[in-house]
Here is the input.
Amino acid sequence: MLDIIRRALDEDIGSGDITSRVCVPEHRRATGRFLAREELVICGLHLLPQIYDPVEDLQFPKKDGDVAVAGEVIATVTGQARLLLERERVALNFLQRLSGIATKARAFVNEVKGTNCKVLDTRKTTPGLRVLEKMAAATGGATNHRMGLFDAILIKNNHIAAAGGVSQALESAKQANTGLPIEIEVRTRAELTAALDQGATHLLLDNLSPAEATEWIQVINGRATVEISGGITLETAAPYARTGADYISAGAITHSARAMDLSFRLELL
Here is the structure.
């Protein structure tokens, strides 16, 4: 995480903030306030001590996971005015992006309230920012799925094709004896039957309608944990959650979250 912040600062500041250097006296001190300009779920405040290092003082009237409404101060930073100015954009970029994901995740979670279904995030993240974006999804109340290709076995349609079929893929995964959870995608009733016959304990149902998913889950009848994926939106989250699925996964939480509207206001001391 420190490396991500360091790279972001290097990218923006480069050889130095020339505007602040020529316009702002070196000795000048100020306080900056981060303000929400719309209702949002806050995420990214924990990065500010690393972004503004060294700094005299940081105050957090809000914390990550809180809801802020337009006009609310979510953090204040006090120190050398030049330092505050040169790091303003990087701080806002992180806060706006991560708060956008947390806000989107919270909206999905709210849609499935009253069911036993949990919302999963996916690997559809910004390259290099996955750890932060998954943290933001969790801040909004979503459940983190696998972090990468290394921490779970998820057999998808192309793996099935390369392995020679559902049974072969599952058998090979079991024989590998990795100790990792095994999930397999099924796209047809024949694949569903083959997976269940092979003892699959975690099934991924992809691109089914809510009615189809309900029917398939009745066939599964508790023999496996069920995740539903495939273009799930805020409008369809509740119907899919009511199918009896254990999870729905939504790439939109990370790949389609918009940056939230936050601003930074500087006051001289």
